[in-house]
Queue: 3 jobs
Job 1
Amino acid sequence: MKVSFSGFFNSAVTTIVLMVIYAGGLALATFIEKYHGTLAAKAMIYYSPLFFLLQFLLVVNFIALAIKKGLYKKKKWAGLITHLAFIVILFGALVSHLFGEEGIVHIREGESTNVMAVRTTQSTSFHTLPFTLELVKFNLHRYPGSSSPSSYESELLVHVDGKTRHERIYMNNVLDLKGYRFFQASFDADEQGTVLSVNRDVAGRNITYTGYIFLLIGLVLSLVTRNSRFMKLNRRLRELIDSNKKELTFLVLLCFSLTTNAQSKENPMIEAVQKFAVSTEHADKFGALPVQSSNGRMIPVNTFSSEILRKLHKSDKIGSLNSDQFLLSLLAMPDMWMRVPLIAISNSELAGFYNLTEGQSAYIEMFDSNGNYKLQEGVEGAYNKMPNERSRFDKDLLKLDEQVNIMHQLINGQMLNLFPKEDDPNHTWYASGDDLSVFAGKDSMFVSRVMDWYISEVQTALKSADWTKANEVLGMIATYQDAKSGTLIIDHEKLASEIKYNKQQVFRFTKIFYLILGGLLLVFSFVTLFKQRKWLQYTLKSLMLLVLAAFVYHMYGMGLRWYIGGYAPWSNSYETMVYVAWATVLAGILFGRRSSLTFALATLFGGIILFVSSLNWMDPEINPLVPVLKSPWLMIHVAVIVAAYGFFGISFLIGLTNLVLMNFGKGKPAKVIKARVGELSLVNEMSLWIGLTLMTIGTFLGAVWANESWGRYWGWDPKETWALITVVIYAIVLHMRMIKACKNAWALNMGSVIAFASVMMTFFGVNYLLSGMHSYGQNDNIHGIFIYLYIILAVVVLLGIRSYICFRKYRF
C-alpha cells in the first residue's frame, strides 16, 4: 500500500489529472457565479474544503515529483524556484483567507467613524478600528462637460494616538494605517459621502508578494539558464536546422486565401445627394474645428463625424463623400438626407417586422404616415427586460433606436458641441440646438445665430461653388472657441495629430501589408524547402525587410494613438486587438532567424487579427480612461499579458500547420514532413514557454495592481479567474511530455491548438458570456464571431483525429 500510495503522489499522470480538475473547477465556478451569485461560487468552489484539498494535493504532488526526479541534485534551479513560488503563493493565500479581514467604511461629510463592516461568505459583522476617520470633503471630478467620472477622492482627518493628520484617498492612492489599508471604492449618489474598502492582511500580503518575487526569478531563469528546457530546445532547433539543410526534397504547398465581398453599386439616392458635395478644402477646415465629445474628450470634428458615420452607416465613407463632407451636407440639407437609405440594419427579421428597407434604411422609414415612431413600443419593451433576458432581436432593435436618435439629434442641431461657455466650472460646451439660455449678452446672440448663418453660407456655396463666406464664418467660430474656452486649454497640435491619425488609417494599411507580405512569405518559405536558389533567399530576405517596415509603421500608429489619448493604447477591446497583432508579429520576428515559416505565419496572423479589429463590432473610438485604469499598472500588466497572447497565437498557428502536415505523413514525403514537423514543433514549444512565462507574470502583476487598487490581490473576478485557467491549461500542455504516451509531436501540437480556446475565452468570452470588474472594454456585438469559432472547433477536431491516425507514432 505504501508503494502504491507514494506512487500516486509522485506520478506525472497525477499532476496532469489534478491540474485538469483544478482548471475545470475554476471554469465551473465562473458560471456558477453568473447564475447564482458570487457568494454561491465562493461557497461551492473557491472556499470549499474540496478545493483546498485539491490545492494541497498539487503541492504534495510537486514535492514528491521534485524528490523523485532529483531536481535539487541536478541543479534545475529554475524549475525548483518557479514551483516553490507557487507553493509560497498558495500558502500566502491560505494565511489571507484565515487571518485577513476585508470590509468597508462608510462616512458622510462632516461625520466621523471608527467602525468597519467586515464581510464574510456567511454574514457581515462590525469591528472597532484603533483610530477614527473624519470625512472633510468628498470630491468627484468629471471629464469636461461630461457626467463620466475622471477621478474621485476623499479628504480625511485621521485621529490616531492623540494626533490628527490630513490624508487623501483616491483610486490607486492607498492610505496605510496600523496594518489597515484604505481604498476609494465608491460614493453616495448625492456626492456627500464616501465608501472606502478596507483590508487588513499584513502577513498574507507579505508572504504572497514574496512568492511573486520568487515566481518572477524562476520564470526568467527558465528562459536563460543553460540547462533549462527552453535553452535545450533552442540548441536542438539549431542542430536540426543545420542537419536538414541538404535533406529537403519535397513538401506539400499549403495555401492560404483571403476573399472579400465586392461592394454593391451605390444606392441611387446616395448618388443623387453626393452631387451636392461640400468642397474637400472647406470640409477639411470644418473637420479641424475642436468639439467636445459626449464623454468630455476634446476632439476634432473630423473624429466626431467619423464616429457618427460609422454608427449610422457602418463605414467611414458614404458614396464618394468623406465623413466631414457627409456631416456638413446633412446639416445643410437635412430634408434630403432624411430620405436617403443610409442607416445600416444587419437584422433582416427586424427590417421585415417594421417594414424597413433591408440592409440600409432611410430615417423617414422609421415613422408611419401619421408621424408616429414605429419602434417606440418595441424599444420600451426591450428596455423593460433585464439585459441578460434580451433576445438578439431586442439588442438589434436598441441599436437601431440609437442610430435613429443620433440622426434625430443631428437634424435638430444637437450633439455637435462647438461652443464653450466661459467660466463654466465643468467646462461644458454646447451645440446650437441645445438650451442656450445659460449664455448671456453678446455670447448669447453669437451662439444662437452663428450656426444658422454658417449653414446658410454653406447652402449658398453648394450652389455657387464659392466658399469664401463660409470660410469666414467658420473662422469666426474658431476665434470664439479660442477666446471663450477659459481654463480648458485647446491643444491644437494634438487635434492636428488626431486628424492625421484618422486620415492615415495606419492599422488599415498595416493589415493589408501583413496579409499580402505574410501570404507571399508563406509561399516562398515552402518553396525554399525543396528548391535552394539564391534569388529565393534574396526574395525571402526582402519580404522580411518589408514586414519589418510594416511593423515599424504599426508601432508608429500605436505611438500616435498613445500621444492622442494620453495613455498606453491597450485599454479596450479594439486597442488590445491592435496590440495583440503587434505582439504576434514581434514573436514571429524573434523566431524568424530560426524559421522563416514561423515568421510568415506570424505576419499573416497579425494581418488577420487587424482584420478582425476592423470589423463593425469593434469600436475604434478613443475614450477617456475610467478612474481605476489611471495607473502605471495598466501599461505594465496589460502589455505583458497581451504579449503572451501573441506567442500563444504563434503556437496555435504552428500547431494547426503541423496537424495539416501530419495528414501527409505516409509514403515518400514522410521523411521530409517529419523533419519539418519536428523543427516546427520545437519552435512551437519554445513559443509556448515564452507565452506561459509572460502570461504568468502578467497575471500576477495584475494581482499586485488589484491589491493597490481594490485592497485584495485576488478576488476571483471572472477575468482574473480565466487568466489563471489559461496559465493552468498551457502548463498542462507543456507538462504532458512527462507522460510517455504524450511525448510526441501530435500531443504537443494538438494541445497548443486546443489550449488557444482558453485565450479566446479570457479575451472575448468573459466579456460576452460572463461579467465582472474587468468589463471596461467589452463589446455587446461579438455574438457573430462565435459561429466562426464553432466551425473552427469542428474543423480542428476532425483534423486532430485524422492527423493522429496518420502520425501518432512519431516522437521527437
Job 2
Amino acid sequence: MSALQLPSIFVLLLIAILASCSIHRPCVQATDHPPSPSASYVVLLEGSPVLHYDGSLPDFPLVPRRPDGRIDMSSQAAQLYASFLIDRHDSILNEVFGEGAHLKKKLYSYHYLLNGFAAWLTAEEADILQHSSSKIISVEKDSRVQKFTTYTPKYMGLPGGAWADNGGVDYAGEGIVIGLVDTGINPFHPSFSDRGGSHPYTFPKHFSGKCEVTLDFPAGSCNKKLVGAQHFAAALTASGSFNASVDSASPLDGDGHGTHTASIAAGNSGIPVVIDGLNFGLASGMAPRAHIAIYKSMFRDVGGYFSDTVAAMDQAVQDGVDILSLSIGPASPPEGVATFLSATELAALSAVKAGVFVVQAAGNAGPLPGSVASFSPWIFTVGAAFHNRSYHNSILLSNHQSIKGFGLSPGTEGTAFYNLVLASDSAKKQRHRYRSSLKPNAHETHANTCQDPSMLHEDMVKGHILVCRYSIEFLTGKASLRGVIATTRKLHASGVIVVVDKDTVDADIEPFPSTIPIVLIPGLEESLMLLSYFTTKSNLTVEARIMGGLSPTYDKRAPQVAFYSSRGPDLANSRRLVAEVMKPNVMAPGDMIWAAWSPIGNDDDYFTGKNFALGSGTSMAAPHVAGIAALVKQKNPNMSPAAIGSALTTSASTVDHQGFPLLAQQPSYNLTLPLGPASPFDFGGGEVNPTAAIDPGLVFDADFPDYVQFLCSIQGGEMEVMKATRTICNQAGGVSELQLNQPSVTISNLSGPRVVRRRASGVARHEETYRVSTEQPEGVVVSVYPTVFKLRKGSSDCRKRHGHAGPRRCRLYTRRQQSVELVITITPTSASSRPSFGSILLSGSRGHVVRLPLSIVSRSVTVN
C-alpha cells in the first residue's frame, strides 16, 4: 500500500467509526418545549486535514515538507489548503443556520491534526447539524477536563548519566521544544530565564509558535527559553464559566499547575528553592536546556473543555513542538474502547504522525484496575511513584517518648520543653472538656480546628505548644492548615501539633513550608497516644519539643507505586481491546516534587504568594518523562515517537534501590494489601531510567500506518465498522492489538497456544549479539525464536551520517541485519482468572538489556 493511500484510510476510519456513535441517535421533532441549553460540540468532517492531505484535489497542490520531514506549514500550499478547510467549516454552519452563523457559533476551526470545528450549539441544533450533510462524520458534545495533580534529577542519576552523555547540564535537551497543554506559565520565574549557563540560548529554528501579548503577559515575557505561549478558552468563555476577575485571558498561570509541570520538564538547572527564608535546595528540570512552549487550555477553579484542549494540541503540533506533555485528562476513565476514537485521541494520533512524542498523565484514580485515563497505544501514559526523599518531623515528650509525624518547619527554639495546650482547654465559653474523646460537640469542633484565634484564650496559649484537631471540616474546605498557622502566630504560641480523628485518619495530608514549628500526626494510633496523656496525667503538665523537619530523610526501599496512581488493564472486564494494551507505560517520580510556582496560583492554597511549591500526582510524573524523552530525542534525533516510547519502556527498572522487586501501595490485583508486590498494571515497564533510555540498543518501532491497521482490527462490539471501511481495512491488512509492535505483550484470555510477533530494530552504534531469556509467568510457558541474533543500526542512519560521500559503505551496511522478527509462542498450562506476569529479556553483548513485560490471563486450557 502506498503512503498516499493512508490519508483516505484514516478519513474512512473516522467516517465509519465515529459516525457509528451517532447513527442511531433519533431525530429531534419540533415541539413546544423550550430549547435545551447551549453547549460546545466538536464536529468532525470528511476530508483530510493538512497533516494527512495527499494532494488529490486538483486546485490544491501537495504540501511540501521541511528538511526535517515535517509538513511545512509556512508554505503557500499549506496555507491555501488550510484556508479552504476553514472556509468549508464556515459555509457548513452558514448553510444550516443562516448567513453569518459561523461568526456566532464557531469556536475553533481544526485544520492541522483534524478536519472539523468546535461550535456553540443547543442539543437540537447539534442534531440538525448531524443530519444536515453526509460530509459530517460526527457531532460530539464537549466534556470537561481536569488536572492530574529538585531532587529528582540527582535521584534519577541524570548529572553523571543522561546529562553527561548529552554534553553536560548546559546542553541537556538543547534544541528540543517541549509543548505543555496546561494552566499557563509564570514567565517571570528564574526557571524560565534564557540567561546564564556556559553559553547563550539560541531560538529553535524549527519552531514557529507565537508569544501572545496581553496586559498581564506583556511583550518580552517570552524569550529563547520560553519560546511560545498562547491561551485557548473559547468553549470555556462561551459556557459562561470563565471569570476574568479570577483568571487571565492570557497565557499567565493563575493556578500554579502549569508552571510546576513546565519547570519539572525543562526548568533551568541550579535554581534555589527558597520559601519564607527556608532553603530546600536547588531545583532543575529533567532537560534543563530544552525550550518550553505553553498552551493554556485549563483555568483555575473551573478547569477546561476538550474542545479547547484539542485546539491547543492542534496549534502546538503545527508550531513544531517535539514533545507534547498533557498532565490533564478526562474526569473519569473512558467507557468502552471508544477512547481510541475520541477527538483528543485522534489528535494525538495525528501528532504522532507528525513526529511528536505525546506524553499523558495516567490520572489519580488508583488503585482500582482499569482506572487509567487513556488506553491508546500511541500515547505514552505515565504513572506516579514515591521516590526516596521525604520530610519527617516529630515531637519529643518530656519522658523522652517520641511521636512521629511530618512538617516542613524548624523545631521549637533551643532544647527546652514546652507545655502542650489542647485547643479545647483554651477555648472560650467551652461547655466541657472532652480530652481524648473522639466525638466533641459542634462548638468544640469549631474551636479545636484552630481557625479562629478569637475563640481561644491567648494567655493560655502564649509561649506554649497548641494542639489542634484535624477534623472533617478540613476535608470540606471549612478549615485549613493555613488557618491553623495563622491562629498559632496570632496567639504567639511556640508551635502547633495537629492530630487526626477517626473521620480523617485516611486523609491525604501533605506537608507545606512554615516558619512556625508544626507537626502533623496523620496516624490515629499516634494521635490517641498523645491525647491519652491529657487524660492519664490530668494533674500534671504535659511537655514536649518539636524537633524540626526541614532536613529530608531518604528511604532505600524506593521507588514505590503511589496509591493514587491510576492503574492499567482490568482483565476481569469484557473490554478485550482495552485489556490488551499495557498501561501505564512507565512510572516516574510524582510525589512531593519541588518545582516552580505562580505566586497568584491557587491550586494549592498553602503556596499562594510563593515562587515554589511541593506538588504530588501523576501530573508531576508526566513532565518528568517529557523531559527525559527530550534527552532521548536529542541523543537520537531520528527516533520515531514509538521508538522513543520503546526505549523508555524496555530500559525501565523493575527493582528498587536495594535490588528488590518494586512494591505498590495497594497493588491493583490485591487492594487489601497496604503495600505489596507491584505488576506491569501498576508500573508498566517499571520506573523510567534516563541513562539507559538514551542508549537502548534496540527498539520496537511502529508508525502511523501500524496504528491505522490497529484501528482497522476493531470490529463489532461497541464500535461498528461500516462495510466499506472493512473492505479498505482488509486491503490494508488489519493488525490486532496483540500483533501491534508494542514493547510489551498483554493477553486477557489465553485458552490455547498463541503466537505473538514483535520486530526489534537495532539503534546502537555498533553491531551487537543478543541472547534471549524468559521469566515465565505462572501457569504459562513462553518460548521465543530466535534465541540468539545480531543487530546493528539501520542504513538510513548510515546515509544521514555519510551522505553521498560513502554510498558503497552504506550499501555494505544495509546487508547486515538491522531488524529481526521475534516469534513468541505462549502456551497455557493451567487456568486462572488472575493475571500472571513475567518478561522476555534480550541481553546484548555490549551491555544493553531490553525487557519486554508479559501480562497473561489463562482463563481456560484447551487440550489437543
Job 3
Amino acid sequence: MVRLNPEDYRLEFFKENGFQRKKCKIGKEDFWTLNQEFDTCQDAPDTEYWFDKISSINGLSVREAREKFIKFFEKNGHTPIKPRPVVARWREDLYLTIASIVDFQPHVTSGLVPPPANPLVVSQPSIRLEDIDNVGLTIGRHLTTFEMAAHHAFNYPDKKIYWKDETVRYAYEFFTKELKIPGDLLVFKESWWEGGGNAGPCFEVTVGGLELATLVFMMYKVDNGNYIELPLKIVDTGYGVERMAWFTQKTPTAFKAIFGNILDEYRKILDVKEPPEKILWEAFRAAGRLEPENPESVKEFYERISKNTGFTFDEVKNYMELDARLYSLLDHSRTISLMLGDGIVPSNTGEGYLARLVIRRALKQLMFIKENVSLADLVDLQIKLWGVDFPQLIDNKSYIIDVIIDEEKKFKETLNRGIKLTSKSLKSGTISLDDLIKFYDSYGIPPEIIASEAKKRNVNVEIPINFYSIIASRHKAPSTVRKIEEKSRLPEEIVSWAKTFKQTNLLFHQNPYAKSFTAKILGTKGKYLILDSTLFYPTGGGQINDMGKVSICDKEYKVVNVEKVDNVVVHEVDKEIEDNCEDVYGEIDWERRYRLMRHHTGTHLLMGALRKVLGDHVWQAGAEKTPEKGRLDVTHYKLPSKEEIKEIERLANKVIDERRPINHLYMNRTDAENKYGFRLYQGGVPMTPTIRIIDIENWDSEACFGTHLTNTGEIGGFKITNVEKIQDGIVRFEFVAGTRVPEEMEKEENKIEELGKILGSKQGEELQRAKALMEENEELNNKIKSYRKIWEEEVENSINNAPIVKNVRITFIKLLENDISYARELLKKLTSKYDDLLIGVIIENDNKTQIEIASGKNVKVELGKLSKIISNKFNGSGGGKGSYASLIINEKINGEELLNTIKDLL
C-alpha cells in the first residue's frame, strides 16, 4: 500500500470553502467535508445507503444524466468527443474498454501524440467483467456495463490546462449546482490510484453511502515499485452515469433507475414477481455493506432483511436470489448487445471468449428462471431501449440477434455433451477448481452442470461464488501483446548489432514500382548487410520479404532474407561478404514482388468485400501474402454459404474492373482515426504519431506497412480458392490474384482431364458420364438393399431357432459381401433388439476369416476374454471389450465348429 502524502490532498479549494479534514472511524481513511457531524467517509461499506433521503434534482434518466454532465463541462470549456467502442481495437494489451482513460492509452498518455482536444469531455461505455458474479445481488453497486462520464486535461511541461484544485471545484459545482445535492453532504475521500503502469493520488466523491465519482491525478510512472514523476500530468476523472440516475430517481435498486419499463417487461416475460417493497428497501439499506463473495456476509444480509421486515429467512432468500438472477439478465443482455454491436464475434479466444462468457452466464441464469424463453428476445428489448444512445445497436441488429440464436444453439449442444465429458472425471470422486475451469475453458461446460451430475453420484463439488469473475480475470487481456509479428530468423548477435545503426531509408515506400537502386553500405557482418537505404521489403505485416541480388565491388550476392530490427533493415545474402566497398547496387526479383503486391492489395480488396457481404463485425485475425497466394483469416460466427462466397468474389472483381485509385497516405493519428475509425488497425497498432494508410477509394482503408499497387485494375483478377472454418469464430479465405488466376485454373483443368480419363469420357462430357455412373451406382445400391432385406429375414429366423445356453441365444451367420461397416451396423441393430443374443458375423477373405461378435445387454460375457480364447484355439488374433469383439483367423473356419466351441465355453 502506498503511503499517502497529506500535502497531495491539501487544496486551496478546501481552504477557501471551509472544508475540514477528518478520519473515518471505521475505514480510517482521511476525507474532506463541510459537515461537522460526519465521522465516516460516507462510502460503502463504512456507511449504509441513505442517499434516498438526500435532496437532489428529480429523476434523471441515464440519457439525461449523461447529457447534463457533458453540457456542464462543455459550458466550462471542454470539447465533447465521441465515445470509443467497448472493444479496445487501438490497444494490443487489452481486449475491452474498461475506463475512459483507455481511450487515450498508450498513444496520448505516453506523449506520443496530442489528445483530440484539451481539455475534453466524454461519456465512455465501459465493460468490466471481474465482478460479474456480484451483479444483481448488490442491487446495482456492481454492473458489467456502465458509462464512465469523464473530463480529462493533459498538462504538458510547457502548457498547463488545470490540475487538482480546478478538478475538485468542477466536481463540487456539478454536484451542487447541476444535481442540486447539498454541499455539506458531499465528501472527498483521499485515496490512491494505480493502473496500466501509472499512478497518482485521487479523491473518491461519496454521498449518502454511494460513490458518484473518482478524481485521479495521474502523475507517476510505476517502475519496479518505484514512482517516477511524469512530465505529462493527466486529470483522469470518472463519474458514474448510472449511479447519478439512481441517486436522482431514489429507487430501491439501480436496475429500476437504469432500465425503467424494461425491468417490468422482463418480469412479465420471465414470470418473476416484484418482491414486497419492504424487502427491496431493506435490501437497499444493507446492500452497501454486503460482501457478495463472502457466504457469511450474504447470510447476514438475508437475516437482516428478514429481521427488519417480518418475512422468513427462506422467503427473503428466495425473493432476493430470483431477483438477483433477473437483474443480472438485465445487465448481461445490455452488455451482450454492446459487445456484439461493436463487432465482437463470440469464440474461444480473445475478446470473443469474453463475449461468450457473458452470453453463457446469461443463458445459465435464464435456465434457472424460466425455460423456453429466448435470450435473443430479451436482447432485442435492450436494442430498442439503447439504440438511440448507441446507433451501432440498430445498425447491427440482425447480426446481434443472429449470433445470439446461434450461441443459444451451441450452448444447448454443450449441455448435452457436458454430461458425457464429465462422467470420467466424476469417477475419481473429486473435482477441483482447476477441473471446473478446464471444463469451462475447453468445453464451455458451466460448473453448475458438473455439480448437478456429481450430486447424482454422491460427489460434492464446491463452486466458488466468484467462479465467472475468476474466469474473466484470467482472460481480460492477452497473455502476450496482440500483435501480428513474424518470428525473426536473425541470430541474436545480428539483432543487437543492427540496433546500433540509424534508421534505413525505405525506398519501397517511396516508389513501390522501382526495380533497382544504389545505396551506401553502413555495415557488414558475415552474410549480413545494412544499407543507408533499400528497395528490399523486409518480412512484416503478413507479407514475406523481397528477394533478388546485390553487387558489391563487382561481386554478386543473392539476397535470401530481409528483416527489420526496429527501424533498421537487415539483408541476409547467400555467402560471406568479403569486400569493403562503400557502394552497393541492388535489384529485386520484380516478378515475385509484383505478385506480392497484387496479393497484398487483394487482401485489402477482400476485406472490403467481406464487410459488405458478411457484416461490419468482420475483423482481421491473421493474414499471409506470398507470391503463390493470399490468405486472410477473419472473425465470423459461421461458415459462409456458397452464395455468399460467390457474391464476395463478384464484388472484388467488380472493384477491379472499376479501376479505383489506391492512395498511399501519411496522416497524424488523430486525423486518421477521426476520418477512418479504428478499422485502420486490422493488422496491428503502429506506435508512431504518423500512420501510413492504404486507402482503396470508398472501399477499404487500413494502416499498413506493405507494398501496394496504385489502382485496383492492376490486381488483374481475383479468385477465391478455399474457404474453411479454422476455429470457432474464425474463417479462413485463400485466394489468388493476377496471373496466378489462370495458373490456378490450369490446375483445375488438369484435374477435370484426369477425371475424364478415370470416367472414360470424352472432353466436355465428364459431367454427363459422372451422372450416368451415379445412376448406375444408385440402381446397384437398391438391389443390394433388397438382397440384404431378404437375407436379414433369414438371419431373424436363425436367431429365433438359435440354441440357448445358460439363457443366452447363440448364433453365427456368414456375410456374403466383404462390408465390415454393414456387418457392425447389423450387429448393433440385432443386439439392441434381442437383449439375450450373442451373435457373430463371419466374413471370409481369401484364406482368412474375419469375425465380428456382439452381445445384448443381458448377456453377462466379457467378449474381450472370449475373443482371446477363440484366437488361441483357431490360430488368430484380435480383441475387444465388454459387448463387442473383433478377430482375424488365419484360415477358413467352420461356423458350426465355432458355435460348438462357444457353447462349450459357456
